[in-house]
Amino acid sequence: MSLVVSAGGHSFCLQARRGFSISKSKVPKLSPRAALTEARPRVNGSLAVQVLRGDRAEDLQAEARAMARAANASIYSPELLARKYGSRPVQALKRTLEILVALGSFALKLLLEQRNGMLDRNKRKRAAELRTIFTRLGPTFVKLGQGLSTRPDICPPEYLEELARLQDALPTFPDADAFSCIETELGVPLDSIFSSISPSPIAAASLGQVYKAQLKRSGQTVAVKVQRPGIEEAIGLDFYLIRGLGLLINKYVDIISSDVVALIDEFARRVYQELNYVQEGQNARKFKMLYADREDILVPDIFWNYTSGKVLTMDWVDGVKLNEQAAIESQGLKVLDLVNTGIQCSLRQLLEYGYFHADPHPGNLLATPEGKLAFLDFGMMSETPEEARSAIIGHVVHMVNRDYEAMARDYYALDFLSPDVDVAPIVPALRDFFDDALSYTVSELNFKTLVDGLGAVLYQYPFNVPAYYALILRSLTVLEGLALYADPNFKVLAASYPYFAKRLLTDPNPYLRDALIELLFKDGRFRWNRLENLLVQGRKDRDFSAKDALQPVLKLLLGPDGEELRTLVIKEAVRVTEAVVLCTVVDTYNSVPPFMRTLMFNGNGGGPLVMSATELESMIELRDQVFRIWGLLRSSENFDPALFQPILQVLQQPDARILGGRVVGGITQRLAARLLQQVLRTPAVPTSSL
C-alpha cells in the first residue's frame, strides 16, 4: 500500500518501507478516562458533555502554547531583507553568480537548440535538466519550480511532468539535525514524546522532511514534519536578489505590464507563511471546520502539544495519490468519483466561504482506502473576496448569455481593472474569443482551453489578475488534469455546472438574484427552457433544496424594488394560464368521438378554437415544459407540500393580493378575447385541424 505524508508545503506518496507498519490509528484524541466516558454517554450524558468541553479547553490551551513557541517565527519584509543583505555585498554577489551560471548555461543551450532546430526534440532532456538545476539551487527555486509545474499556460507538458517530480523527491538533511530541532522546539527529550520514530525520513520536500512516529502517551501513529535548518537564511537571500531583478524589469521591460515586484512579494509572503508550522496547523483546523463536514472529505487533526514554528505533528493518513489511477482502482475506487468530490469541495472553498487550498497538486490530494478524499498540506492558503465570489458566478451567467458588455464590467468587481479603465475596447476581444468557444455548450467546454483563450485576451489589455484568481484557475486546471488521466472526455465545467445552478436558484444574494433574472428573462419573455435546465442541473447537487429555490424568488417578487419583475411575471403567468386552459380544451375536444364534435360545435368540425397549428404547438410545448418543471420540483428529495405554507402566508399580504388580482385580470381579458374570436369565426374555413 502507498503512504502519503505532507512535508515542507508538499505531500508525498511512496511505497511502505521495510520495517514500517501501515495502519491508520482509530484512537481519538482523548485521555483514557475521557475515552471511557465517551464509550458510556447514556450513563451520564452531562458528564460526557463536560468531558468534551474540557477536551476542547485543553486543546485551545495546547494551541496557545504552540503559538507561544512560534512567537519568533519570521515574516516576509522586503525592507528588513534589504538592510540585512545590502550590507553583505560579497555574499549577495556570490549567490548571484551561482544563479546566473546555472540558469545562464541552461538558457544558452535552449538558444542554441532553437537555432539548430533541436528544441522540440530535446524538450524532455532539458526539462529534466531544469529540474536538477532547481534542486541544486535550493529551496527557493524548488518552490518556484513547484509553482511552474501547475502552470500549463507557461510550461510545455514535458516541463510540467518533470517539475512535478520536485514534489516527490528532494535531498534530505541529517537526521541528527532533525531530532535536535524537535527537542529544541518542543523543549523535551525525543523519547518522552514518541515511543518510536522512523530512523530516517519517510519523505523530504523543499522546506522540510517528514518522519513517521508513534505518540508515547496515546499510541497514535503520526506524521512529524521538521523544518530544514537554515531555510530562512537561504530563501531570504534569494528573495532579496529576485526582488532586485523585479525592480529592474518594472523599470526597463515595457512588454511586461504586470507589477513584477508585487507578484514576487506575494509569492515570497506565501513561502514565509509556510515556514510557520503553527500557522499551517491553524489553517488545517479552519479548513476542517469549514469543509470536513462532508463524509467524503478527510482532513488530518493537528497535535498542538507537539507542534511549534518548526515542528508540525498531525494524524498519519494512509492513501494513494490522486494521479495513481491503477492503485486507486485496485482498491475498488473510481478516480472520477474522487475528482468530482474534489471539484465540489473546491467550489465550496472558492465561492461559499472563500477560504481555499491554494496548492492542490496530486501529492496533496489522496484517496483513502475508505473512498474519502484527503486534503494535506495547508501551508499555502488563499481567500476569495466576498464581492468576487458572487461576481464569478455572475460572470458564468454572462458568458452563457453571451453578454460580453456585462462580462467586461464584471472585471471591475473581480478587481481585474481599476474603475477608471474603459472596458469598451475589451468587448470585441471577448466576443471574438467566446463566440468561437461557445459554439459548444458550456458543459462541453474544456476548462484549460477556456483559461488559455481568456489569458490571451487578458494579456492584450491593462488587466491586473489578482493572486486569488490565478490560484483558482490553477486549482480547477489541476483537478481537470487529474480527471483527464481517467477520462479524456471529462470536462470540469460540466461537473461544476450543478453547483452554479444550485447557487443561482437558492442563494438570496442580491447580485445572484439579479443574475438569475437576467438568465431567465430575455426581451420581456420568460425562458422556461433555461429554468428547466437549471433545475435539472441543480438537482444533481446534493445540497439542492426545492424550498430554498422558491422562497428567495417570492421575496424578490413582492419586494419594494420588484415592480419591473412583477410586470414580467404577470405577463408570463397570464401566458402560462392561457396555455394550460386552452390546451385542456383541445385535449378534451380530441377525446370526444368524431361524430359528436360536429353536434357540439354546430356543424363545424374544424375544432373548438381559432388557432394556427404553429400557435397551438407553441402552447402545448409551453404547457408541457411548465408541467415538467413542476414535476422536477415535486420529485426533489426534500420536497414537502408543507413548504408551500410560508408561500401561502406571503400571498395573504396586500401586495401579493394586488399581484394576484392583476394576474386574474390579465387571464380574464385573454380568455374573453379568445371567446370573442370563437363566436365571430367563420365555420367553413377552419384554421387548424386538431
Automatic annotation (TrEMBL):
<comment type="similarity">
    <text>Belongs to the protein kinase superfamily. ADCK protein kinase family.</text>
</comment>
<dbReference type="InterPro" id="IPR004147">
    <property type="entry name" value="ABC1_dom"/>
</dbReference>
<dbReference type="InterPro" id="IPR000719">
    <property type="entry name" value="Prot_kinase_dom"/>
</dbReference>
<keyword id="KW-0808">Transferase</keyword>
<feature type="domain" description="Protein kinase">
    <location>
        <begin position="196"/>
        <end position="526"/>
    </location>
</feature>
<dbReference type="InterPro" id="IPR011009">
    <property type="entry name" value="Kinase-like_dom_sf"/>
</dbReference>
<protein>
    <submittedName>
        <fullName>Protein ACTIVITY OF BC1 COMPLEX KINASE 3, chloroplastic isoform X1</fullName>
    </submittedName>
</protein>
<dbReference type="GO" id="GO:0005524">
    <property type="term" value="F:ATP binding"/>
</dbReference>
<dbReference type="GO" id="GO:0004672">
    <property type="term" value="F:protein kinase activity"/>
</dbReference>
<dbReference type="Pfam" id="PF03109">
    <property type="entry name" value="ABC1"/>
</dbReference>
<keyword id="KW-0418">Kinase</keyword>
<dbReference type="InterPro" id="IPR050154">
    <property type="entry name" value="UbiB_kinase"/>
</dbReference>
